[in-house]
Amino acid sequence: MAKLSTAELIDAFKELTLLELSDFVKEFETTFDVTAAAPVAVAAAPGAAGAAPAAAEEQDEFDVVLESAGDKKIQVIKVVREVVSGLGLKEAKELVEAAPKALLEKVDKEAAEAAKEKLEAAGAKITIK
After folding, report:
1. How far is the C-alpha of 47 from the C-alpha of 106, rounded, in Å?
2. CB 116: neighbour CB atoms within 10 A?
3. Cα(42)–Cα(81) distance, rounded to whole angstroms?
4. pLDDT of 55 strictly over 60
5. Is the pTM of this model over 0.70?
6. Distance between CA 118 and CA 19 in Å, rounded?
């Protein structure tokens, strides 16, 4: 098998749907016994002189989480396809049925609010974290 360059791998990943990429990550984690989860930062010990609290920083990245599809599941699936780029009908349906599920991760506040408005208008219950 020919060795692929990083650029070739990135191009191949760009062609995958989100669900296909998710399946790949799970298989990769299983095969190599690793995890793709981001490491959790350890908080500094209290009592350091002059230390500013990190919690005072304003949050600039938000996650849009679908809590439930509500009564209008078909409408919500259509809006999920609109909000989450690259999803086919099957992938959007699976995503909606897997609620609660993060639809968008690490997006700016405006994008998160816009997605929330569209999804709630379709009948979904949304949480922004």
Report:
1. 31
2. 20
3. 37
4. no
5. no
6. 22
